[in-house]
Structure formats: C-alpha cells, structure tokens
Amino acid sequence: MDNVRLIAAATGASGVPYFLRMLKHLENVNGRSDLILSPGFLKVAEKESSETIVPENLEGTKGLHRFRLLDHANTGAEPASGSAQYSAMIILPASMNTVAAIAAGLSTNLIERAADVSLKERRPLVLVPREAPYSLTHLKNFTTITEAGGIVIPASPGFYHNPKTIEDILDFVIDRVFQHARVPLRLLDSWKG
Ligand SMILES: Cc1cc2nc3c(=O)[nH]c(=O)nc-3n(C[C@H](O)[C@H](O)[C@H](O)COP(=O)(O)O)c2cc1C
Predict the structure, then answer these.
(1) Residues in the chain with pLDDT < 70?
(2) Does the first or last residue of the chain, that is N or C, have fewer Cβ atoms within 10 Å of its Cβ?
(3) CA gap 40, 94 in Å, rounded
(4) Is residue 179 lining ligand 1, measured as CB closer than 6 Å?
C-alpha cells in the first residue's frame, strides 16, 4: 500500500474552497486519493467557486499524487468494503445531512458507506462540519460520531498564525485535517509558545 491512501469526500456544506485547496496540497504528497463528491457539493460549488468544477478534471496524476473519481451513487465501489486498504477518510466539508447519516449508521450512498466502513475498521475518519449555529441534534450527532472513533474538526480557523490571505485561513483547518488523517505534510509551523 502507498503510505497515503485516502478517501477524500466532499458534501454540500459551505466550504468548497477548503476541498479544492486540500487537493492542491495533496499534489505534494506521495500517495493516492479516491474522490467522492455528493450532488449537494456540486450544487454549493456553483455558488461558491469562481470557476465551474468539472469533476473529471480532478482526476489523474498531479504532482506526487494520483486522484481517482468514484461515483457517489455506487455503494459497491472499493471503499464500500472493509477489505480495501485506506489510510484515512476525510469529509471536507461535511454537511449536517451527511453528519446525521453517519451518526445513524446509514449507507445510502458511497460517502456514507465508506464512512461507516472507516468507523467499523477503526480507521481515521475526519469530518469538517460547517453550520452555524449548531442545533442539539447536530451536537448529539458529533458526540455519537466521536464516541464511535471519528474526529470532528469544525471549520473554525484560528488567527494566531497571522493569516494574510484566504489561503492562509484555509490552510489552518487543512493542516489540522492532515495531522489527524496522518497525511505527512505540515502547512503551518507548530506553535512554540
Ligand atoms: C448554497 C448552499 C449552501 C449550503 N450550506 C450548507 C452548510 O453550510 N451546511 C450544511 O449542513 N448544509 C448546507 N446546505 C444544505 C445541503 O447542501 C443539503 O442539506 C444537502 O442535501 C446535503 O446533501 P449531502 O450531504 O449529500 O451533500 C447548503 C445548500 C446550499 C444550496
């Protein structure tokens, strides 16, 4: 297995620039990623991205990384089985809909199924939810996922690294995601006090 073999999923919460920036950084990481985009993500992307996202254009070998696009509806694709070897799964951004489905153990699409498999196989599952404010239902779902072994990293960047650009702000969150998904690429200096 490659050192890094990710499932990188994106759902319909605000935060499309996070996902695109993460893919850019992964080009500097030796490994492979299977990409799964929900229809909701593509809908939000129409609003948030300055350029139209053509999913197929995300595929291929870029830099040190190989990207493969999987069909969101295909619950029989490789990540649907625990026998497939992945190093981690990232959902960035994670909608409250998908968070609820994962907390309930649903597998109605490939993102939900792959997340469920990640939890049962005790592999890192990193979710970056975006909603404000959170309802009690959202908070209970985060608790359930955390108790099941998932890692919830809210899209709430810190500012103590003195960001100058939007990319600097995105990188704060992506750096945390990479740390917890065991992606060996640091985007920020660790805090020295
Ligand atoms: C422009 C736009 C922005 C949205 N932003 C959010 C959001 O920040 N958080 C969220 O949980 N849902 C948000 N939604 C709603 C989800 O996209 C919707 O619940 C969708 O069914 C999620 O499906 P998915 O989990 O399969 O991607 C947004 C929808 C639109 C159209």
Answers:
(1) 1-2
(2) C
(3) 10
(4) no
